[in-house]
Amino acid sequence: MLASLSVQASGAYNREDSKIRERVTADGSSGFKAQPGRYHLYVSYACPWAHRSIIVRSLKGLEDVVSLSVVDPIRDERGWAFRDVPGAEPDPVNDFGFLWEAYRATEPGYQGRVSVPVLWDKEQDRIVSNESAEVIVMLNDAFNEWAGTAELDLYPQELRDEIDELNARVYDTVNNGVYRAGFATTQEAYEEVIPPMFDTLDMLDDRLETQRYLFGDRTTLADWRLFTTLLRFDPVYYTHFKCNVRRIVDYPSLWGYLRDLLTVPGVRDTVRMDHIKRHYYCTHESINPKRIVPVGPELDYDEPSGRESLAA
47 an active-site residue? Predict the structure, then answer.
């Protein structure tokens, strides 16, 4: 059931768009009304797209409002699986063995990409959305009536155009850029994506030299979308996906920024580096056929960042 990677004749990797994209709204006008206990997140600690949703759920204080369960980080030809392994568990909602069953329950005959996160509606017994960028927006504002930190707005109206513009570039060249590099099947396709990736990282490092976060002295969804890629860059993407021009630790602002974000209350508990490394190095047989998981690198995430002084 694991859909094969979409690679063009040129050797370029093409990510398939998410196909199930309904919305939960506070007033229920979408057909999916926000209610405590009604929705469930299926996630992977390994996946950066799913990690975003875990972080926003934690920052908004929604642990008792939207339930969550974690899949096995090891994915084979059958796709994401529910197994009783450290840090994961059998499916507590539907007793599914594999995540593709949730997709087939929603859309019989579904043949698309089976991805995480999945926002599941327990009342209608179906997936609401598998688009992480939209799931985190829902978590930010649709459940504020019950959120522990309802006052926290990670997608403020006055910044949305600027956030969307920056997110578009970061997604294309960095978030998805690392996959386009790693899954490229020709030298030309690989070399096409490396320069814009590091151009963007250079730009972000410059931007963060004089301000604590991407949009000043408060985090937004843009920061958390970037964070999950930066966290995986040196342990995985630098070697496994051949993104080895520079490491994040080589960027003074980005490296401090990454460590700073890890100190935000609730974030460190969402990080499972064991899941991250085991997933990438044990799943992509075409890249790492022996499935050997590197021991390093040694990174001191606890070194004080000193970035508090950049706050306004």
Answer: yes
